[in-house]
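Notes to self after the Tuesday call (sharing in case useful).
The group wants a holo model before anyone commits to mutagenesis around the pocket. I volunteered. Ligand is S-adenosylmethionine. Logging inputs and output together so the record is complete.
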Amino acid sequence: MTGDHYFTAEPATAAHPREVEFAVAGRDYTLTSSGGVFSAARLDPGTAVLLRKAELPPADTAGALLDLGCGFGPITCVLAASAPSATVWAVDVNERARELTAANAARVGAADRVRVAAPDDVPADVTFAQLWSNPPIRVGKDELHRMLLRWLPRLAPDGVAWLVVARHLGGDSLHRWLADQGWQVERHASQKGYRVLRVTR
Ligand SMILES: C[S@@+](CC[C@H](N)C(=O)[O-])C[C@H]1O[C@@H](n2cnc3c(N)ncnc32)[C@H](O)[C@@H]1O
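Result:
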């Protein structure tokens, strides 16, 4: 046993690489995951709902997209495949998650368009056309709010953020909190107990 959480910076848990297979928008993905990262054994059901229900970026999307809390990189890989002209920033505090995402970006042929970074390593002048996140709820509400207050303002003026949160983990209270902060928040979809929120200025 170790004291690792999925958001531990440098997990001590044994890696045990494994393959995770899923399909989104008619495309099959086989990615590498491992111990010490979030949902190591399968595509998280919340992430699956997000990728099924939110509007994937169209193929002509340019500019930068952000996968906030990339884990082993499923959202990053789907965004990179959907928008081959965009750059995808994959950000996570967990070093192993970043390594896996970089390897998975290479597996889907997008290594040259995926920038994997720790939060402090994203240049301050990058703004995002879209922000996607299955955010870390287990870090606690204060930390979650700090994270969103840090990254949402980096959306371009006409940018959109797509978030998925389980209702029983506070999806509806997050919706209210974001609205209280002045964001336009729409419950875009609700499936299997997950809320998909569309957030704009
Ligand atoms: C719920 S997991 C989602 C992982 C991945 N996107 C997926 O769908 O499988 C949230 C991720 O956020 C990361 N995280 C936690 N705190 C963070 C922070 N302050 N900034 C960026 N990422 C963070 C965690 O390490 C974790 O990988």
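Two things stood out.
The chain is about 25% helix and 30% strand.
Residues 6-7, 38-39, 44, 47, 68-71, 74-75, 91-94, 97, 119, 134, 136, 139, 147 surround S-adenosylmethionine (CB under 6 Å).
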